[in-house]
Amino acid sequence: MLPGHLRSLAGVSGEVRLDVAGPLTLGVLVDALEAGFPALRGTLRDRVTGRRRAFVRFYACERDLSNEPPDAPLPEPVAAAIAAGREPLLVIGAMAGG
Amino acid sequence: MTQVRVLAGTRKGAFVLTSDGTRRKWSVSGPHMAGWEIYHLKGSPANPDRVYASQNTGWFGQLTQRSDDGGLTWQPAGNDFTYAGGDPGTHLWYDGTPRPWEFKRIWHLEPSLTDPDTVYAGAEDAALFRSTDGASTWTELTGLRQHSTGPQWQPGAGGLCVHTIILQEPRMYVAISAAGTFRSDDNGETWQPVNRGLVSAGIPDTDAEVGHCVHHVEAHPSRPDTLFMQKHWDVMRSDDGGLSWTEVSGNLPTDFGFPIGVHAHEPETVYVVPITSDELHYPPDGRLRVYRSRSGGHEWEPLTNGLPQQDCYVNVYRDAMAVDTLDECGIYFGTTGGQVYVSPDSGDTWEPIVRDLPAVLSVEVQVLP
After folding, report:
1. What is the pLDDT of residues B214-242, one digit of tens each?
2. How many helices (H) and strands (E) does chain A have?
3. Taking CB atoms and an 8 Å cutoff, what residues of chain A touch B59?
4. Facing B60 at nearest CB: one of A5, A38, A96
5. What is the pTM of this model?
6. φ, ψ for residue A48, nearest 5 deg
7. Over the stretch A45-56, which tens digit does the pLDDT of each residue have?
8. ipTM associated with this complex
9. CA dist B26 to B43, B58, B125, B290, B334, Å?
10. What is the three-class DSSP state of A52?
11. Nearest to B122 by CA among B139, B136, B110, B137
């Protein structure tokens, strides 16, 4: 699930479904998202460093996954819930600014 | 029938304002890219319906967008502004310590005079990029950032940004806060600082090549060697392509300000919006006055007819003034209070086109046949 600004940018409404293979990591999910929606490249992570943007957060199953290493498999049972489509990965624009 | 199109970038989106040649009745389209900061949008001189926009937020970074219908619909374009050459090195931070170059945003987009697919982008931290495929991909013109003075450049209060790009192909000028003005005579491959004659408090060396906080520079197409500059303090002009500058602030009530404009048909008629000071970014005495010089500086007259003359405390940013090319030249500017004003008679009278937009960051105008 993307925040409103990014749904507009990607031209989607509601949830985005991604096809991914192998163990789920944040890196795999963002790679798949950017491949499906090239307009989103650079919006979640810095183009040069690859680091998550400071005001972008990732949540699933009521857990904050933002600081999970991009290449580390997501913890179970979160990964299984996302992979099965039972729970969305929520991309949140942090509450900041005015 | 002649149509006038004003492109306004604001803190919360882009707006397209259109009128016929009388410039009395306006239609408003927007917000486009709602909720995003639109630092600048500008149309191609070679194809006015091709418009480029710089779109940014602190959350999701820098994007560019491209329109092929004059700004009514938009398509995301490229946003890979990677500095060329691996390790970009350092410039100076506010405290004088070295700081690695880091891309932050695009302040200004300047489409080519002849090719709708070619557009230049001025970046913070200071760098110049060019696209030749309609903003899909960007390549840095490294000669600017890698100039031998680059490690000495320091940011202005708004950042270390390329905010002005003047194309006189093959000559180009850029202005950087707070490095100064630079000129290229080979389409941006190599650059020289052109700041001699600028005097800035805090720079005791009056021969310093760089370090001046230039706010904006304009040139009239018929006189490419004549440049007008609004510096942090001081209004300046050069008649030798920037090689030397003289102050023309004259009788202005204050010579601090951000934008400067040149009349489309009178290359010695210049417009500024004096602002109280670098600490007080609003008009003196709460009176919004554009000042016009018909003599290329020195002698200035206040233009107030139609502008608020009490309790007005807005600012006018550096890219938020533009002129049109109709026979009776129109002057436009936008404010941090969300007003966009038009004068259809070279500044004699003013009317608000809109009063309640988000803070206006940039204003450009196109005349369509």
Report:
1. 999 999 999 999 999 999 999 999 999 99
2. 3, 3
3. 3, 5, 53, 55-56, 93-94, 96
4. A5
5. 0.96
6. -90, -50
7. 998 889 999 999
8. 0.91
9. 19, 32, 37, 22, 15
10. strand
11. B110
What type of residue is B296? G
A92 touches chain B (CB under 8 A): no
Structure tokens at B195: 């700041």
Separation in Å, CA of B59 to nearest CA in chain A? 5
Cβ distance B228 to B235 under 8 Å?
yes
Give which of B41, B59, B50, B109 is closest to B81, Cα–Cα: B109
- How many residues in total does chain A contain? 98
Of A6, A48, A97, nearest to B60 by CB-CB distance is A6
Instruction: Write the residue in A8, A42, A93 that is nearest to B59 by C-beta.
Output: A93
Contact B61 A42 (CB under 8 A): yes
